[in-house]
Write a structure and sequence with these properties.
Blueprint (H helix, E strand, L loop, with lengths): L1 E4 L4 H13 L5 E3 L17 E4 L4 H12 L19
Antiparallel strand pairs: 1-3, 2-3
Length: about 90
């Protein structure tokens, strides 16, 4: 297993976990249970997505595509243009 990405928060981690799993990638979310120790542990680097070595490149490509996604015309809210609606 190789740690390939550190999500900013648990919501992003769960969304990416589901996306990668739906693509057939065996993904593990490390650090989920450490979030309860906030205040005692550092806030950065607790969460990490790990995948088997042979799936790491494909998983990184999917995450890069997710992070670079642009809203489709008409899909963004009028009050906040350029924001994706999930």
């Amino acid at each position: 297993m190789r740690r390939i990405y550190e999500p900013e928060n648990l919501l992003e981690a769960e969304m990416l976990l589901g996306m990668l799993a739906s693509e057939g990638i065996d993904v593990h979310l490390a650090g989920r249970h450490l979030l309860g120790g906030a205040g005692e542990l550092p806030l950065q680097g607790l969460l990490g997505l790990a995948v088997p070595d042979e799936q790491a490149e494909y998983a990184r490509q999917l995450i890069d595509a997710y992070n670079g996604a642009e809203p489709l015309a008409g899909d963004e809210p009028e009050t906040v243009p350029g924001t994706l609606i999930c």
